[in-house]
Prior knowledge:
Helices cover 39% and strands 15% of the residues. Strands 3-4-2-5-1-6-7 form a seven-stranded mixed sheet, sandwiched between helices. The model is unreliable at 149-153 and 162-166 (pLDDT under 50). The chain starts with 8 loop residues before the first helix and ends in a 9-residue tail after the last helix. Strand 3 (95-98) and strand 4 (103-106) form a beta hairpin. It has helices at 9-21, 37-55, 82-85, 111-117, 120-131, 157-160, 171-177, 192-205, 222-230, 238-249; strands at residues 25-30, 70-74, 95-98, 103-106, 136-140, 180-186, 209-215. It has 258 residues and is an alpha/beta fold. The chain has ten helices and seven strands.
Amino acid sequence: MTLISPYHPEIDSIWQAISATGARSIAVVSALPREGSSQIAVALARRAGQSAAAETPAQPGRPVAVRPKALLVDLDLLRPCALDMLGQASQPDEIVRVEGMNLAVLGSIGAETADAWRERARLTEQLAAWRSEWGTVVLDTAPLLSNERRRGRRTSEADRRSPADSGEIAGITAAAAADVCILVTLAGGTSGTRIREAREKLAAAGANLIGAILNDRDNPSLLAELDRETYRFAKYFPDWMAALRARMHRSPILTVRV
């Protein structure tokens, strides 16, 4: 899985908006599984670590702090992926440092710990403890809603379970415990009804939803759409269409990755 750069313009814009609120704990939530919330959580955690590193340069005669400035916690027990994305491995409940990123990650949570953190009060207490040690805490949470079979797409048994029946730490619990939360949705995959349902759950739980991210992962780019259109006229103007495609693929605007 490709990591999103922590300095991607859109990630940087999201991070600046979060920083303006003064929040130190951020829950990244999604309505349904596999909407890209984990990639956003990892990118924001890396951005938080880089931001902290830039704000606290080493000074002559003073040792560089050993503890990273940002902590990423993977609370999606059924689909944990933070450790794999960062190329790390750990024992349950072990916090490991990611070299070169000013970031630590808790990506494997033991059964007893999970049982305790299912209670909002206990998770809120743990968040307070983390904030006393790390500048920023990013929570990669479980989906707010159970998945549904859509457009013939196959889903796993774990995806189809209701959060209440899955035995995991509910995403709504993490979202309510954090200072702020952001909602990630998949363009062309998540219906407006499911998004509204997710927003209503967050509001009812008292979560501080400060924004939403529309993941355009599965939609074709503008260049791909224009490229496809040229083939409709290729049988009438083959040379012109070939030249147009070549020109489009050299365009600095159409080829930019967003």
